Amino acid sequence: MAEARYLGHACVLLSEGPHRLILDPYLTGNPQAAAAPEAIDVQHILVSHGHQDHLGDAIPIALRTGATIIATAELAGYCEARGARTHAMHIGGEHDFAFGRVKLTIAQHGGGGPEPGSYTGPPVGFLITLGGRIIYHAGDTGLFRDMRLIGEMNPIELAFLPIGGNYTMGIEDAVRAAELLQPRRLVPIHYGTWPVIAADPQAFAARVRDAQVIVLRPGETLEF
Questions:
Q1: 176 phi and psi, to 5 degrees?
Q2: Which of 105, 106, 194, 219 has the most CB atoms less than 10 A away?
Q3: What total number of domains does the chain contain?
């Protein structure tokens, strides 16, 4: 049995047996954060892009725990230059790790880094095979037609999709994304952190037809 714990914004902690990995660990400064970065103990950190609300505490956690940061080559290089252990990948690439398999997908968003004018590669989503099940974390993205192909090629057990609008898909587009991806279960993320991305997850859930939507409050856990 695997477990997903939602830590707020786009941050998700996945665990299965001895394996623990965290995605987009924006905790410091996150008004939704359900954990302190000092409490995170993982072996792998997946970062979808270099914006501070996704890269977040990845480097400090990696330096403290020895965890490996999995990211695009550009973002991995940025983290490695700051002392972190990394595994560089890129869109369409896949690799086996101790916990399972990771494949990078496209995401429609920006690729800026934490410092003004810096570039940390294109944004990505992640297809993660953990405990024999496929999890899709879309990262920050707008709606794109290739979501249908992602769903056709991968029987997605659990998807994490942004619904907050302004910087990513809003509710209407995320409903369409769910239709294209056809996950069995779906958790909305990247909403409510600030007023500009306020969204009603229950309104989203009411419009999704072919997937079970689980609305997790920060700190809540889902077994799958």
A1: -65, -40
A2: 105
A3: 1
